[in-house]
Automatic annotation (TrEMBL):
Designated gene of the protein: Plpp6
Protein name: Polyisoprenoid diphosphate/phosphate phosphohydrolase PLPP6
GO biological process, one term: lipid metabolic process
Transmembrane region(s): 89-110, 147-172, 184-203
Keywords: Endoplasmic reticulum, Hydrolase, Lipid metabolism, Membrane, Nucleus, Transmembrane, Transmembrane helix
Enzyme class: hydrolase
Keyword check for Ribonucleoprotein: no
SMART domains: acidPPc (SM00014)
UniProt xrefs under InterPro entries: PAP2/HPO, PAP2/HPO_sf
Record-linked Pfam families: PAP2 (PF01569)
Signal sequence region: none
Family (UniProt): Belongs to the PA-phosphatase related phosphoesterase family.
Catalytic activity reported: (2E,6E)-farnesyl diphosphate + H2O = (2E,6E)-farnesyl phosphate + phosphate + H(+); presqualene phosphate + H2O = presqualene alcohol + phosphate; presqualene diphosphate + H2O = presqualene phosphate + phosphate + H(+); (2E,6E,10E)-geranylgeranyl diphosphate + H2O = (2E,6E,10E)-geranylgeranyl phosphate + phosphate + H(+)
PANTHER family hit by this protein: POLYISOPRENOID DIPHOSPHATE_PHOSPHATE PHOSPHOHYDROLASE PLPP6 (PTHR14969:SF18), SPHINGOSINE-1-PHOSPHATE PHOSPHOHYDROLASE (PTHR14969)
Amino acid sequence: SGSSAAAPLPEEDCMKLNPSFLGIALSSLLAIDLWASKRLGVCTGEGSAWGSVRPLMKVIEVSGHGIPWLLGTFYGLCQSDSSAAREVLLNLLFALLLDLVLVAVVKGIVKRRRPTHNKMDMFVTISVDKYSFPSGHATRAALVCRFVLHHLVLAVPLRVLVVLWALIVGVSRVMLGRHNVTDVLFGLLLGYALYSVVEYCWLSPLSAPALFALW
């Protein structure tokens, strides 16, 4: 009838028919992100464009995984006989644990699914690892990179290698199809910022005597 035709549209329908500029921009960026991520996922399987490089990418994946870093840092902490080294390693352990908790919380809140072309054969996963935003490997790589550059005395070539390692870990996540590009970019930024939190909360014999008494 004429009266029903003149009835106003529900608010949600009006929003769909008249999307905001911000909504259009975000939708466009998301589409570009998904398209670029799929195009760059050249190591998603043995039959993909760069399938022969997949084993190397998986080695890089393990190099940025949390478990090797946690175990290695804990072992070094137990074996160290220098108070200065113990202080650095204890703070690295604190940084790694903080990174794991923060990434798990963000993944649980955002709940962005991994790319559809991802092959779920990752090294040691937990429940939140079914989500992709942000990339935990990327946050850890950026955090460890900044930590190492600030607290270890390294020659210039080694410092360059550390930075390259962090970047390669991030790139490998997209190449393997584990993450979208924005997952990695946000992860790198988050890891870089997280180091500043670790520095602000730096653990020392004065600020945390109970922890240092254990070692």
